[in-house]
Amino acid sequence: MAKTSDLMSRIEEKRDDLIALTQELIRIPTLNPPGENYREICEYLRARLEARGFTCQMIRAEGTPGDSDRYPRWNIVARTDGARPGDCVHFNSHTDVVEVGAGWTEDPFGGALKDGKIYGRGACDMKGGLAASIIAAEAFLECHPDFAGSIEISGTADEETGGYGGVAYLAEHGHYANVQHVIIPEPLQKDRICLGHRGVWWAEIETRGEIAHGSMPFLGDCAVRHMGAVIAEMEASLFPALSRKKTAMPVVPVGARSSTLNINSLHGGQAEPQPDFTGLPSACVPDHAKMIIDRRYLMEETKAEVEGEVRAVLDKVAAERETFRYDLNEIWSIEPTMAPKDAPVVTSVAQAIGDVLGREAEYVVSPGTYDQKHIDRIGKLDNCIAYGPGLLELAHKPDEYVGVDDMLDSAKVMALVLVDLLDPA
């Protein structure tokens, strides 16, 4: 009990360090796309962690989507070994952030501290979680230098665009082969354990027609009208059917406990003119239209079922429209994943939440995917969860922030998990 009290006090003493670390991470604008300053943030993390006894690997995910000499996909994996053999606990955080967007009242890369909150793009998603995991590990090492096993901290690229230049690459190259427990400090709130996420199936639908003069559309075949018929059929049959599907997964928010489909983009006919073009469009019947759909599905569904439902819509439209032609192409897909509630990392984090916060943990599932998908699917490790500080609804929003007290509490939880799983002397 005394050692636990010392560990909690040590984390409290690191409050200013935690604030400064989070601010410094935010001030490195790792925008993705295109993937800026990945090496810079990895070098920053290497300098800090090597000074505290970690051995660091800098890993470029060459050949992955987006990787180029201008925007190389850099990752860092830091490791420290204990005095005795034991398990490895791995904290994984993505270092990339999404575009800034409009509506900010704070400097998105300033890291301002106001009223106990640190503002900036990536503050909650997820540089605050990264900082909390580092503080947790450092405090644990100071209080328990003779622990058993190993601790790893990784900063990885491209989670916001699929994670293929980050965790997927590491998993494909065996970096999780000797890891037993993974915590991803995504912003799911400090009293929640995120067991996994829904599945995703992205696809492109293209309808084709025949170009003709716009004053005589009867001599052509309008691909945009064909696409309109597809959307109308989706509205009539597919969207209502999806809303009726329910899952036993504890997805948050509650609306995501049904299957969902989003029309991500829609383009047809002539391309949008360049900003400096001041002329008029030409009079043409559009001979092509494209729509990208984002379908999120449940553990109770299969990918084949998901694709079949969309194809059924297209085939129904084809049966009703004599000249209707289409292509349906998958862009990417990820199956749903969910760690078992009795997995070691789950029970350990749940106990720590109770000890730190004095209340039971809530078990949730994310509506969208994150890098757990690669650790589970490629790394073959289902003892993996998301747990971290911050409010999910602030992610990707203007004036994104993370609370300092929430980071401190999460760091305490993570440190207690290390105590539990690494059997310190």
From TrEMBL:
Keywords linked to the UniProt accession: Cobalt, Hydrolase, Metal-binding, Zinc
GO molecular function, one term: hydrolase activity
Cofactor(s) needed by this chain: Co(2+); Zn(2+)
Superkingdom assignment: Bacteria
Record domain Peptidase M20 dimerisation: where: 196-320
Family: Belongs to the peptidase M20A family.
Protein name: Succinyl-diaminopimelate desuccinylase
Organism phylogeny: Bacteria, Pseudomonadati, Pseudomonadota, Alphaproteobacteria, Rhodobacterales
